[in-house]
Q: What sequence folds into this?
């Protein structure tokens, strides 16, 4: 019997037109380009317009992913959107996206695992493909993080950006997703959270930083061990793009040279669940990712939640 895999056959992304640089931010809050860049690696982020929602951004990214996969609306049998910034409380972002794309079959739902959302969505999608419930799944990360920011709080407003990334995960007999690994621990709920009123991000940055480095380092090592591979077999690490210092610490922990790490946090900021598919698409279009590459995706976010995916592209 041949093995059944899920495989990425299309990718697309969308970034809002407006770019907000660190220099622009220094005119709004008491900060500087150097402070932000030295601590996070961020130079700029994209900010959605007032009328642009996570559904609108997801729609634009999805059309590109479907075009690369050469699929039409009739071919999509499941949609998952990872987001913490839904356009409405309900219907879900995924169902609104299903409507925008004129997909009239299948089913759609959202996943909220904060910055780890896209990894959780891939984990679920992979299982649906291998259980033969769906053949072509649209998996999207879309975030309007700017809607959760207190623009008077320099501790948080300098870190985040908006955007969307999408992939098509399809049934394949050739190896694609090789392993997924997700986890969470709710006892950290107050270290990174969005309160209801006012609806702003609050974060104990220092604590988040330390636990993120420790957890993601351990996760990368266990992903290698679980798949019985060594680090030199990995072509690319695409980590969640929150902070270049966190990313460098993980690469160091697994002895991965920085040339094999995809870094987009400098131009996107932290786009939460959208960060990995945005980085994936950026690296694909600039020619870094090649068909057949072995790629490790890894994320960490509020909850805390964390997860990794090892895949053959
Ligand atoms: N500009 C200038 N000064 C600032 C700014 C700013 N934007 N923000 C904070 N400061 C000040 C603080 O007020 C503090 O001043 P004080 O010493 O007078 O009190 C000083 O800078 C140092 O603050 P720290 O919070 O200790 O700075 P740190 O070196 O830890 O960097 C940062 C802060 C960048 C937030 C870091 O902790 C971090 O990156 N944490 C990870 C958080 C993260 O990435 N969260 C994203 C979501 S989770 C995830 O995606 C992984």
A:
């Amino acid at each position: 019997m041949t093995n059944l895999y899920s495989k990425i056959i299309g990718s697309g992304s969308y970034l809002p037109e407006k770019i907000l640089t660190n220099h622009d931010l220094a005119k709004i809050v008491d900060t500087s380009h150097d402070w932000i860049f030295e601590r996070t690696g961020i130079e700029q982020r994209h900010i959605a317009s007032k009328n642009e929602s996570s559904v609108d951004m997801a729609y634009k990214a999805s059309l590109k992913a479907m075009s690369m996969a050469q699929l039409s609306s009739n071919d999509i049998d499941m949609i998952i959107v990872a987001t913490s910034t839904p356009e409405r409380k309900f219907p879900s972002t995924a169902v609104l996206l299903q409507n925008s794309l004129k997909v009239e079959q299948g089913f759609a739902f959202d996943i909220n695992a904060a910055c780890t959302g896209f990894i959780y969505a891939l984990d679920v999608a992979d299982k649906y493909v291998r259980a033969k419930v769906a053949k072509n799944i649209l998996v999207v990360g879309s975030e309007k993080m700017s809607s959760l920011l207190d623009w008077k709080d320099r501790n948080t407003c300098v870190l985040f950006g908006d955007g969307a990334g999408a992939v098509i995960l399809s049934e394949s007999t050739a190896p694609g997703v090789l392993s997924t690994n997700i986890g969470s621990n709710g006892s950290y709920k107050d270290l990174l959270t969005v309160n209801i009123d006012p609806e702003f991000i609050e974060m104990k940055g220092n604590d988040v930083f330390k636990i993120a480095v420790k957890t993601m380092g351990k996760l990368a090592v266990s992903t290698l061990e679980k798949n019985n591979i060594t680090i030199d077999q990995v072509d690319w690490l695409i980590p969640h793009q929150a902070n270049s210092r966190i990313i460098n610490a993980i690469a160091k922990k697994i002895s991965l040279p920085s040339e094999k790490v995809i870094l987009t946090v400098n131009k996107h900021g932290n786009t939460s669940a959208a960060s990995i598919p945005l980085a994936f698409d950026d690296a694909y279009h600039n020619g870094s990712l090649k068909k057949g590459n072995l790629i490790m995706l890894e994320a960490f976010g509020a909850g805390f939640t964390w997860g990794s995916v090892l895949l053959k592209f």
In short: The pocket of acetyl coenzyme *A is lined by residues 31, 35-36, 39-40, 115, 154-155, 158-159, 192, 203, 205-206, 208-209, 212, 240, 242-243, 270, 300-301 (CB under 6 Å).
